[in-house]
Specification:
- This protein has four helices and no strands.
- The two termini are 34 Å apart.
- It has 113 residues and is an all-alpha fold.
- The chain has helices at residues 3-35, 46-80, 82-91, 99-112.
- It has one domain.
Length: 113
């Protein structure tokens, strides 16, 4: 697949999956720390549980988007060739809106929180 398509269309979703995996690792480490010590440790705080659920959601949504967008990009590249790449360059990732926008917003939440 063309490098421009990889950078413009697929990389943001791959970044979302990577950030979700990083958040999931952080959750697992914090969960292990919160539950370590005694056999009857108190349940982890709800914020920590929500962090784990959000991380899993980010991973699954990003992977689902990649499964849908990658074949679409292949078919459009075969059908339109360079014109498809030009359209991606002109419109950016928001060519695939609103799914891309929502996943990118989720990534920013993990970056800054």
């Amino acid at each position: 697949m063309d490098a421009d398509i990889q950078n413009l269309a697929l990389a943001p979703f791959q970044d979302a999956v990577a950030k979700g995996r990083c958040a999931l690792r952080n959750f697992q480490q914090q969960y292990a720390a919160a539950c370590s010590g005694s056999r009857h440790a108190p349940p982890p705080p709800p914020e920590l549980v929500q962090m784990g659920k959000s991380a899993q959601g980010l991973i699954s949504h990003g992977e689902r988007a990649l499964r849908k967008i990658e074949p679409l990009c292949r078919s459009k590249m075969e059908e339109y060739g360079v014109r498809f790449v030009d359209a991606l360059k002109d419109n950016g990732i928001f060519f695939f809106s609103p799914l891309a926008a929502s996943i990118i917003c989720m990534c920013w939440e993990y970056t800054w929180n």
